[in-house]
Specification:
The chain has 379 residues and is α/β, with parallel strands linked by helices. The protein contains 13 helices and twelve strands. Helix 4 links the parallel strand 2 and strand 3. It is globular, with a radius of gyration of 21 Å. The structure holds pyridoxal-5'-phosphate.
Length: 379
């Protein structure tokens, strides 16, 4: 394949990071279980030495995710939160940091912790309100973006925010967990760092916890790698191998889950026991126009507020049989939870909001189960 062939991302997900083709060579990379490597004298830069610094089993996954995001090889870390913490480490103590008011809740917990311990001036904004973000940027060292946001599914104008942040001299980090690189590629819009909870759609089978950061800037990559080494935020080889195995089917899974989510969102919006549906794919959704312009698909996460408040939402979670009542998202299995069951969830997230992570099961089976649970809860 020549560089001008520009393989589609679905192809990249299958082919990137394969071992070199040679007669008798394995098609898939192996797992190297070794904490240390034979080494003496001054180590060469590409020489494996000790697994907290670098490990061969990380490389194929890092190559694949880097290529999918349009960046340098990614850096894999022990969890999505390790990746979030690595990106926050790029700004000095006392920096002004602009964050979405709705974002992954532990990201906001970390930001508050850094405000206390490192004097970060954390400014929460509505990331869907581009003017509000612009107004918060003067003096900022970092703009943190999630889009669509967890769990409200607000859609940010990421290219406009990147331009505004760079005008203000701020770095831009985008948590691309919800959209995946198949939905949007923030580095191609100029973002400095992309962060992933690989735990979710990239690995896709609810069997590993893993994170990654991606950048196009070699100096930033070096600083992020140094953070990983000194903070010990490394991933185990089995987890990375499983994540690469999951990544191979990313396009198929995202396509199916997204289709299912679209069908369910439309039916839920017409359901007598539903007050509100949040899904960027619905024409009436506040994020619809922007999502249609910026994203290649509307994703597999749906927000639903059943009639009857938080008690009814809890009753729906208790009544489903096929859907799994659990936190997390992006797995092959459909899951749901009431987000405000967590004390750390933002108080501006409605008490009755159910976050649905739509999987790849048959959509009619998913609908029957959900419809029955909603009717039982609303009765
Ligand atoms: C789950 C999640 C994280 C944290 O990832 P872990 O792998 O659980 O540490 C960060 N951001 C978003 C958007 C997430 O959904």
């Amino acid at each position: 394949m020549t560089p001008s062939d520009h393989p589609a991302l679905a192809t990249v997900a299958v082919t990137a990071g394969r071992p070199d083709r040679a007669p008798g060579a394995p098609v898939n990379p192996g797992v190297v279980l070794s904490s240390t490597y034979v080494s003496q004298g001054p180590p060469r830069p590409d020489e494996a030495m000790y697994t907290r610094y670098d490990a061969p089993t990380w490389h194929p996954f890092e190559a694949a995710l880097g290529e999918l995001e349009g960046g340098l090889p990614a850096l894999v870390l022990g969890s999505g939160m390790a990746a979030v913490a690595a990106a926050f480490s790029l700004v000095p103590a006392g920096s002004r940091v602009v964050v979405p008011r709705h974002a992954y809740q532990v990201t906001l917990v970390l930001a508050r912790d850094l405000a206390e311990r490192a004097g970060l001036d954390v400014v929460p904004v509505d990331v869907a309100d581009t003017d509000a973000v612009r107004a918060a940027l003067p003096g900022a060292a970092l703009l943190w973006v999630e889009s669509p946001t967890n769990p409200m599914l607000e859609v940010a104008d990421v290219p406009a925010l990147v331009a505004a942040a760079h005008d203000a001299g701020a770095l831009v980090a985008v948590d691309n967990t919800f959209a995946t690189p198949l939905g949007q590629r923030p580095l191609t819009w100029g973002a400095d760092v992309v962060v992933h909870s690989v735990t979710k759609a990239l690995a896709g089978h609810s069997d590993v916890v893993l994170g990654a950061v991606v950048t196009r800037d070699p100096a930033l990559r070096e600083r992020l790698a140094a953070y990983r080494t000194t903070h010990g935020a490394i991933a185990g080889p089995w987890e990375v191998w499983l994540a690469l195995r999951g990544l191979r089917t990313l396009a198929l899974r995202v396509e199916r889950a997204q289709h299912n989510a679209g069908v369910l969102a439309e039916r839920l919006a017409a359901h007598p026991d539903v007050v509100e549906v949040r899904y960027p794919g619905l024409p009436g959704d506040p994020g619809h126009e922007r999502a249609a312009r910026l994203l290649t698909g509307f994703g597999s996460i749906v927000g639903v507020r059943p009639r009857g408040g938080a008690a009814a939402a809890d009753a729906v979670v208790a009544a489903v049989r096929l859907w799994v009542p659990a936190t997390s998202l992006g797995g092959v299995e459909s899951m749901l939870e009431r987000r405000r069951r967590f004390a750390t969830e933002s108080p501006t997230v409605p008490e009755d909001l159910l976050r649905l992570s739509v999987g790849i099961e048959d959509v009619e089976d998913l609908w029957r189960d959900l419809d029955r649970a909603l009717r039982a809860a609303g009765a």
